[in-house]
Amino acid sequence: MENHRSVSRRIILFPLPFQGHISPMLQLANILHTRGFKITIMHTEYNSPNHTNYPHFTFKPIKDGFSEIADKVHGTPDPTYFLKYLNKSCVDPFRECLAKLLAEPGEERVACVITDAGFYFAQTVADELKLPRIALRTGSIGCTLAYDALPFYSKEACFKLTKQDSDYEASVPEYPLLKFKDIVKITTNPQGMETILTNMLNQMKASSGIIWNTFKELEESALETISQDLRVPSFTLGPFHKYFPASSSSLIEQDRTILSWLDKQLPNSVVYVSFGSATCITKSEFQELAHGLANISLPFLWVVRPGMVVGAEWLESLPEEFLERVADRGRIVKWSPQPEVLAHPATGCFWTHNGWNSTLESICEGVPMICSPCFVDQPINARYVSDVWKIGMLLEDGFKRLGIEKVIKQVMKDKEGEEMRDRIGYLKEKVNLSIVEGGSSCRSLNNLVSYILSF
Ligand code: UDP
């Protein structure tokens, strides 16, 4: 078959240095490697991927000067500041490294560079060096459409509404799926966000194409709209992690001991709780969450990242006697093998921050969600989950023990939860069909491979 032929071309990939961006880029690199491409991963020194997990790739670290600022942040970071910084500090090292790679004598020609869409500076450098650049957008298409529509700059005040404002619960006219109470969570810095998004979208439009970690059946109408808006080829070949279920690109060590604990639990009985790699919560939110979990009569697995609770190292702020109360019914870990936890038959629901990777992983395993979005794309993903696909329920009004108990019961025990499980089970089947020969993601991958070979 044409697309499976061994090709003597190299692709250079450059991920943003955050867990939710590194994982899909490395998964994509693995997918392209199986299609015969040689792979070079250019990466920042900050959050370097573990080279030993990928003996089949070549790695090129570049200096970014980022550790100094990233390590000083306590609490949930401001992504606009981080992105602005990286889009400046990486320009020269990226250009120098890319130019060197292009000049290297080697058997295979460099076909293109694939960078995270958030590295918008890379388009100009790629143009200077006359190398096609493809952008990998690690978020959903729906989220990118919302970003494009929201009036970040022109109506800055609406990002500052509070519960007391009459519009707080109303729909946003520019993107009626969202309410004002959702968009206030997206950013505390609307001007900075507008600058970043304008740059990102303009450079996506200037790129040779966009790869999305999503699948057509999930976002069909959004895909049509974005293709008309951006006017460059779009490739929806996700969910990437389903191509290599066993491989992990985790930056943190995963606690695998909990898999044997899960083996002892009843099917669909466990509430899995994790808020990803960057979200932070306050001590009082943490305590309400703990009370909520202690008060339900269900087993739970809770990921508490060290540093996740503002001002605490790890579990110091747990309510008194929490551990005695829950005993073997609950497990707390620092980091889990999440895709495997979600695929485990015991996992009954996923209480998530709705990062896009977590959302997709839940869809892939047919696990309904409880949504507690924190910032950037998460409130948008959460609306799609609860109001469009109807495969999860938003925990409205923050972390309060009574609300937590109620929503867990709704998703785990009530009829509406059962209906969500049916709907997400149907999507799981669609995912499985999309990545096999003839499926939409597989076809899109074939198209991408042919497209890259045409450069
Ligand atoms: N993850 C994990 N173990 C955990 C929590 C999260 O391996 O205990 C992984 C998860 O599978 C996902 C990624 O970390 O692939 C988080 O990405 P996401 O986009 O959901 O959120 P972010 O961390 O970017 O906020």
Mind explaining what this structure looks like?
- The chain has 455 residues and is an alpha/beta fold.
- It folds into 3 domains: 9-151 and 189-238 and 435-453, Rossmann fold (3-Layer(aba) Sandwich), CATH 3.40.50.2000; 153-186, no CATH class; 258-431, Glycogen Phosphorylase B (Rossmann fold), CATH 3.40.50.2000.
- The protein has helices spanning 19-34, 67-70, 79-89, 91-103, 122-128, 141-149, 180-186, 190-205, 220-230, 258-263, 283-295, 322-326, 338-343, 356-365, 378-388, 401-413, 415-434, 440-453; strands at residues 9-14, 38-44, 58-62, 109-116, 133-137, 171-172, 175-179, 209-212, 234-236, 270-274, 300-303, 330-333, 347-352, 369-371, 392-394.
- A 7-stranded parallel sheet has the order 3-2-1-4-5-8-9, with helices on both faces.
- The model is unreliable at 1-6 (pLDDT under 50).
- The site of uridine-5'-diphosphate has 18 residues, from helix 1, helix 13 and helix 14.
